Amino acid sequence: MLENMSTVRAAAGVFGVSKSTVHKDVTERLKSLDGVLYKEMAKLMEINKRERHIRGGQATKLKYQNAKPGLPYGAGA
Length: 77
Description:
The chain is an all-alpha fold and about 80 residues long.
């Protein structure tokens, strides 16, 4: 996650586990395994938390841009 500045969702996809598992590993288990790495990950998690509303807005914008006329929003995207 640190190398790519990725999100919990992206990491979960790469490793084939749930977002909950990644979040628990990063916020709880990593602390006892590697304190330095834990602090770096905590910073990344905070950045992702501050930026998530921006990513959500971008996703919504794309959803409406890709909607076909006459179909419910997002249909056929």
